[in-house]
Amino acid sequence: MTRDASGELTTLAGNELSGAWDAQGGRHCPSYVKGWDPDAGKWVERIYYAGAAENLWGPYSIGYLEWDGTNWVDQAEPVFEANEDWERGSVYEPNLIYDDGKWKLWYVAGSNMEDYLVQGFAESEDGRTGWSKHEIFARAEMKMFDFCVVKRRDAYEAVFSRVWLVDTPPIPETGLWWCSAESPFSELSKWSEPVQLMTAADRGWHVGPWKPSAI
């Protein structure tokens, strides 16, 4: 959704093309990115998101809306789907940057309801096809959610959540974290030692962060 000139909420984009794969799950986890499309020979703006064909709880795949100069246009098929056993058939929470000629994607694989979250990584030259082998960026024990990367001068910074999905008190590591690197590496071990910014202490209106972003 967005707001029109009068301030009223209005639909950002319909799902006439994408409904077959995203209509039952809504559009979750938006991530805006501008990058080069080698087939079109131009810079394009996209909003990547997760959608589901079956129901609100997944399984999910990842697609995008693309700006055509006037409207955000939906796509007939997702551009990224689970293909590894460890992904358990579902990929969501996309976070992307365009860097060094590649669309770089960090994402969650698995299921919140099953308390199984793995952070994955893949990259593509056009952001649609030819994705590299899906790699494990952070294993399930970390319960990493939304690894959001931004470039600052000649370095990269990332904020991410570590979540707690079971009905017991969260472990101390649950919360909001920050790290940095000289390059947007596909391996967490090459990033700096993460620093915890916030815990999951009960603050009345929240008990832990989800979906962080940085600018």
What features would you highlight for this structure?
215 residues; mainly beta; Tachylectin-2, Chain A; four-stranded antiparallel sheet; 1 helix; globular
Question: Mind explaining what this structure looks like?
Answer:
The structure is a single chain. The protein has one helix at 19-22; strands spanning 2-3, 9-10, 28-37, 42-52, 60-67, 72-73, 91-99, 102-111, 116-124, 135-138, 144-152, 155-162, 175-181, 195-199. The chain is an all-beta fold and 215 residues long. It has a domain at 2-141: 5 Propeller (Tachylectin-2, Chain A), CATH 2.115.10. A hairpin with a 4-residue loop joins β3 and β4. It starts with a strand and ends in a 16-residue tail after the last strand.
Give a brief rundown of this model:
By secondary structure, the chain is an all-beta fold. It has a domain at 2-141: Tachylectin-2, Chain A, CATH 2.115.10.20. The chain is built from one helix and 14 strands, in the order ββαββββββββββββ.
List the helices and strands and how they pair.
Elements: E1 2-3, E2 9-10, H1 19-22, E3 28-37, E4 42-52, E5 60-67, E6 72-73, E7 91-99, E8 102-111, E9 116-124, E10 135-138, E11 144-152, E12 155-162, E13 175-181, E14 195-199
Antiparallel strand pairs: 1-2, 3-4, 4-5, 5-6, 7-8, 8-9, 9-10, 11-12, 12-13, 13-14
Second CATH tier, the architecture of the domain at 2-141: 5 Propeller
Task: Please state the CA-atom Rg, rounded to the nearest Å.
Answer: 17 Å
The SSE string, one letter per element, is EEHEEEEEEEEEEEE
Structural class: mainly beta
CATH class categorisation of the domain at 2-141: Mainly Beta
Which range does the strand content fall in? 35-45%
Described by the principal axes of the CA atoms, the overall outline is globular
Q: Kindly report the CATH topology of the domain at 2-141.
A: Tachylectin-2, Chain A
Give the rounded overall mean pLDDT: 92
Let me know the number of strands: 14
Head-to-tail CA distance between termini: 21 Å
Write out the strand line-up for the largest beta sheet, numbering strands in chain order. Answer: 3-4-5-6
Query: What proportion of the residues is helical, as a percent range?
Result: under 10%
* Secondary structure tally, helices: 1
Let me know the CATH homologous superfamily of the domain at 2-141: Glycosyl hydrolase domain, family 43
Unreliably modeled segments: none
User: Major beta sheet, specifics?
Assistant: 4 strands, antiparallel
